[in-house]
Design brief:
The protein is α/β, with parallel strands linked by helices and 225 residues long. It has eight helices and nine strands. Helix 1 crosses helix 2.
Length: 225
Amino acid sequence: METTSREALDEALANYISEALQAEIQREGDASLAVSGGSTPKGVFRRLSNAPLDWSKIDITLVDERWVPPDHADSNERLARENLLRGRAAAAHFVGLKTDHADARDGLVEASEGLASIRRPLTLTILGMGGDGHTASWFPKANNLADLLDPSGQQALGACDPVTAPHQRITLTLPAVLRSREVLLHIVGTDKRRVLESAAAESLPIAHVTEQTQTPVSIWWSPDD
């Protein structure tokens, strides 16, 4: 999906998500959604928060999280609570990924237990992408990147020291992301479009999503960033 403005993209994507969640509720009785952080999804979140859905039947979690307190300015949970989990969407069942452990690696078991309460498979997983081609918290220079991207891996969550970005992270692994009914990649700006176009040739992390054939993936893009 391509639009000429960021506002139009936000509106179209929010409508698409709402319709997919509603269809899943009608088909299965409930639905689930994994969302990413950063500034890109704020407009989508705000529109989606007032969608006329039975939010009490919707589980929401995060694709990844910075290992900071939930009230920290860099917390993805804070961003989701301030922009998505309000209005009608305040009734959704939300599961964050941050625990009280000092190190994300030590929090993996507890976070995985929390994640187990989320309806699977995920109805939708919404990904973003950084200018280095990372998505989720699969950073190109992370020393355990291969483990996070192992398609045969058995763990839904992994820890990551990104090297090129602040804060330790906890993140869904590639197999966990691909165990979704559909993945939506939401990016804005011509620079990120160029990165995406070269991702496969440069073996960037995002290519492990866009080049696979297991799970449907759609790209939502606007040149206006």
